[in-house]
């Protein structure tokens, strides 16, 4: 009986490429999973039964449960928010009376008071925004 020839490589070396691939896949899925945009602060939108989709165009204004405001991933006070929206409207060439797609989407926390939401809508009106969309979560998607 003849013994097989020794190749010089320990058998563990054959597992190293497999381990490398597993780690590369792990890193890939960690990065790919983190690509979703996160809000500046947590906002739990109210439920809705309307199934129409929402486009991602325009500014996203967040209203937190404690009345905090944010515009496109930056937390702002009410006066700064109004100034930014006015400047943005002028930069886009939008006039206050111009109709079309809404430029502002509001994502308000379901625990935010109605007064805070109405104050935000008055602020948007004062900034020259005529049309907004209130973002909700489709009932049953939670």
Structural class: alpha/beta
Can you tell me the overall shape? elongated
Radius of gyration: 26 Å
Estimate the mean pLDDT confidence: 78
Quick synopsis:
The chain is an alpha/beta fold and 142 residues long.
Can you offer a commentary on this structure?
With 142 residues, this protein is an alpha/beta fold. 32% of the residues lie in helices and 15% in strands. It is built from 3 helices and 7 strands; from the N terminus they run H-E-E-E-E-H-E-H-E-E. The chain has helices at residues 16-33, 78-92, 114-126; strands at residues 47-48, 59-63, 69-71, 75-76, 104-108, 132-134, 137-138. The strands form 2 sheets. The chain has a 5-stranded mixed β-sheet. Strands 1-7 form a two-stranded parallel sheet. A hairpin with a 5-residue loop joins strand 2 (59-63) and strand 3 (69-71). It is elongated, with a radius of gyration of 26 Å. The N and C termini lie far apart (68 Å). The model has no long low-confidence stretch (mean pLDDT 78).
Helix-strand blueprint:
Layout: H1 16-33, E1 47-48, E2 59-63, E3 69-71, E4 75-76, H2 78-92, E5 104-108, H3 114-126, E6 132-134, E7 137-138
Parallel strand pairs: 1-7, 2-5, 5-6
Antiparallel strand pairs: 2-3, 3-4
């Amino acid at each position: 009986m003849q013994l097989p020839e020794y190749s010089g490589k320990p058998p563990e070396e054959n597992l190293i490429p497999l381990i490398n691939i597993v780690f590369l896949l792990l890193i890939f899925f960690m990065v790919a999973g983190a690509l979703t945009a996160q809000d500046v602060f947590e906002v739990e939108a109210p439920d809705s039964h309307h199934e129409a989709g929402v486009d991602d165009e325009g500014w996203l204004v967040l209203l937190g449960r404690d009345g905090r405001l944010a515009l496109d991933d930056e937390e702002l006070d009410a006066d700064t928010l109004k100034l930014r929206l006015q400047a943005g409207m002028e930069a886009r060439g939008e006039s206050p009376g111009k109709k079309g797609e809404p430029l502002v989407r509001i994502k308000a926390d379901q625990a935010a008071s109605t007064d805070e939401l109405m104050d935000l809508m008055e602020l948007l009106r004062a900034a020259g925004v005529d049309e907004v969309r209130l973002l909700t979560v489709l009932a049953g998607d939670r």
